[in-house]
Amino acid sequence: MNTATKVIAFANNKGGSGKSTTCSNVGYALALGGYRVLLVDADMQQNLSLSFFGEEEVLAFSESGENLFTAIKDECDVRPFIRKTAYENLSLLPSGILMSGAEFELYGKKNMEKTLARVLEGVRASGEYDFILLDSPPTLGMLVMNIMCASDYLLIPIEASPWGLFGLANMLDFFGKAQEINKKLSLLGIAVTKADERKGYFRQTMEFLSELENVNVFKNYIRIDSAVEWAQDNSQPVLAYKKSSRSAKEYLEMTKEMLEYVNR
Fold first, then answer.
1. Between helices 246-262 and 19-32, what is the axis angle to 10°?
2. Which residues, including other chains, have CB under 8 Å from residue 141's CB and lie 6 or more apart?
C-alpha cells in the first residue's frame, strides 16, 4: 500500500448528484476504518460543512474569514483554518459564502490552475492525513479545474434519474483537459446515487454507464433512503446518524470498493 496522502475530488457539473453527501459519508467511513481524513468544502453552498456543523457554526466560519476562500485569495497555508469535527480522525476545511468569488481571484494568479495545489501543499506534505477529500461546486470553471489539478483521483457521483446523465460528456471532456495539466490525475470511477431499482430510468442509467469505455463504475450504488435526509437535517453523515440504515451500509461497501482501487 502506498502510504502517501491521497487526494480525491468529488465533482459533477450536474447539481443534485450527491457530491456532498457522498464526500461526507465516504470521509466518515474512512475515518471509521482508522484513516485520518481531511474534508475540504470548496462549494459556496457549504453543504459539506453543514454535514458536520450546525448552521450557526458554519455561518461563523464564513464570516470569520478562516476558510478556503481566504486561503485561495491570499494564497496562504490552509492549516490554521482546519476544524476538528465531533468524530475521531475527521477534520474539515470549511467553505464560505464568498467562494462565489473564487473564480475571479483565481484568474489573477500566476499559474492559476495550480493555486489550490499550492495552498494545500503544506497540509499534504505534513503527512497528517491519509486522505484529503475535496467537494466541488456544480460547475466546470477554474475552481473545479484547480480542484482536479490538486487531486490524484476524480470520483463522479451521478444521480440515477432522467436528467442524471446530463452533462456527463462535458464532465469527462473537462477531466481530460485537467489530465493534460495534472498528469497524475486518474478517474477513480462513477458512483451512482439516489437509485430506485423499481424505475426504468435506473436500468437505463446502469446500461448506459456499462457501455462507457475505460470508465470504472462502482458495483455498489446508493439507493434512495429517507435516512440520508434526516441525517442532513441533523448535521450528520448518515453513517453516524443511523448506521443500521440501508444507505449507511451501502456507503460502507462503496468505500471498501474505493479503497481496493486506491490501495492497489
1. 80
2. 103
Strand 83-84 with 37-41, pairing: unpaired
pLDDT > 90: percent of the chain: 74
Under a CB-based contact definition with an 8 Å cutoff, are residues 72 and 116 in contact?
yes
Q: For the segment 88-100, what is each residue's pLDDT rounded down to a tens digit? A: 999 999 998 888 8
Q: What does the alpha-carbon distance between residue 92 and residue 94 come to, in Å, rounded to a whole number?
A: 6
CATH number of 6-259: 3.40.50.300
List phi, psi (to 5°) of 257: -65, -40
Domain assignments of the chain as residue spans, ordered by start:
6-259
DSSP label at residue 184: T
Which sign, positive or negative, has the C-alpha torsion 65, 69, 75, 81?
positive
256: Cβ–Cβ under 8 A, 6 or more apart, which residues?
none
Rounded Cα–Cα distance for residues 166 and 169 (Å): 8
The answer, yes or no, to whether residue 197 has pLDDT greater than 60, is: yes
Q: Where are the alpha helices (DSSP H) in 17-166?
A: 19-32, 47-50, 55-64, 68-74, 102-106, 115-126, 142-149
What does the alpha-carbon distance between residue 245 and residue 223 come to, in Å, rounded to a whole number? Answer: 11
**Strands 83-84 vs 90-93: parallel, antiparallel or unpaired:** antiparallel
Q: Which three cell numbers stand for residue 115?
A: 493555486
pTM as predicted:
0.95
Cell of 47: 453543504
pLDDT, tens digit (0-9, with 9 covering 90-100), for 115-173 = 999 999 999 999 999 999 999 999 999 999 999 999 999 999 998 877 778 888 899 99
